[in-house]
C-alpha cells in the first residue's frame, strides 16, 4: 500500500514540477510558491488557491478555500490595494523585508500568529497560539506599542479589548474576516433575544433566568458585549463545558452563538438530548421553531458553522481506519456531531497539539482540523505519521488572506511612522465584552 508519506512526496513532486512549468500560477510573482498546495501537493478544494490573496480581496465572497460557498456580509471590510512593490516581490524579498523591519522595530512591535496561519507567517511570529492565547499574550505585554495580529478580524478585536488603550492592534489584511463569526450579526442576535425573551416570559422558578446568552470566542466584539450586558458569557473550545455549567447554574436554558457544532457537541457530552437543542435560523420567525420547542429547549443553537471543520465526514474517518488499522482520529469540536462521535478524541487545537506531543513514536494520527496546523504538527513530530482526514487541501480561506506581502507592508508602514489597518473596539463595547470575558475566566468546573 502506498503510504501517506509517499503520497505526499509524490504529490509535492508533481506540484513542484507544475510550478516550475508555471502551471496554475496566473498571477504569481517570481519564485512565489502556491500556498496551500505547496503544503501537501494533494488536490485542493478550489483552483483559486493558487492565486494570491490580493487577486481575490475585492471579489464578492470569501474567495478560494473552505469558505468559498459562504456569503460575505455587505458590511464586511475590504482591503485596499497593496503597492506593487509588495505584490511583485519574490518570497525571498518579502522574507528579507519582514526580517529587517521586525529587527528595526524591536520590542515596540510584536507579531501574533494564529495556529492556522501559513508557515511563511508563523516563522516571523513572536507568539503562536489560538485566538484567546494570542489575546492574552497582547494583555501580558504592556511594553509593546503595537501588535500585528496575523489571524482574523474577531481575534484582533479581542486583542484590542484586552490590551492597553494606547496599544494598537493591527490586522495586516482587512479582508481576513471569519465566515463563522460573520454568520451572526449583532442585529440578528438582538432580534433573536427580543423574540426569545418575549416567548419565554419571566423566570418560572427560583432565581434561574429564562435564558442565558453564551457566545463562542469566534464572534464579533458587539456580540461578546451583548452577552456581557445580558448576564451572559464567552467560551472557547477548551472551556465550553465549564461555561455551559456556569450558565445552567444561572438559567433554565442557553442560547449559543454562533457555532451550532461546538454548542451541540458540548451539550451532548453533558447528556442533553438533541431533542432539547433546537436550531435558531436567524431569517425565520422564532428561528423556525414553535414556542413550545423553545420552552422545552435546554440549548438553543445558532445556525452557524465553521466552513473548514464542517468538511470533515464520518466517511473520511472510516476510510482512514480502513487504510491505517490502529490509526487514532482526533477532531476539533467545530466538526459535526457524527464526526465527533466517530473520532477517538475531540478537543480544541491545544488539546490536539498536546495529544500529538504525548503520542508514542510510530503512531499514526488522522486529524480533523485546519491543514496548515496539521502539516506543522507533522513537521514537528517526524517520528509520527500525521495526516489530515480530508484528502482535499482546504485551508481556512480567511486566514489565507494574511500573506507575507501584507505583513511586509504593515511592518514597513509602522517603520515609516504610519499605523495601517488598526482595529479599534469602542470603549462601551470593550467594557461590556470584558464583563463576559471575565465571567469566563472566573468560571470553574
Ligand atoms: S477556521 Fe473556521 S472558525 Fe477559524 S477563522 Fe477560519 S472560518 Fe473562522
From TrEMBL:
Residues 1-16 have a biased composition (Basic and acidic residues). Iminosuccinate binds at residues 114, 131, 216-218, 237, 332-334, 349. It comes from Leucobacter chromiireducens subsp. chromiireducens. Binds 1 [4Fe-4S] cluster per subunit. InterPro entries: NadA, NadA_sf, Quinolinate_synth_A_type3. The keyword 4Fe-4S applies. Residues 1-87 are annotated as: Disordered. [4Fe-4S] cluster binds at residues 178, 306, 396. Pathway: Cofactor biosynthesis; NAD(+) biosynthesis; quinolinate from iminoaspartate: step 1/1. It catalyses: iminosuccinate + dihydroxyacetone phosphate = quinolinate + phosphate + 2 H2O + H(+). Belongs to the quinolinate synthase family. Type 3 subfamily. Signal peptide: none annotated. It is found in: Cytoplasm. Its EC number is 2.5.1.72. Catalyzes the condensation of iminoaspartate with dihydroxyacetone phosphate to form quinolinate. Its main location: cytoplasm. Its cofactor is [4Fe-4S] cluster. This is Quinolinate synthase. PANTHER family: QUINOLINATE SYNTHASE, CHLOROPLASTIC (PTHR30573:SF0), QUINOLINATE SYNTHETASE A (PTHR30573). Keywords: 4Fe-4S, Cytoplasm, Iron, Iron-sulfur, Metal-binding, Pyridine nucleotide biosynthesis, Transferase. The keyword Iron-sulfur applies.
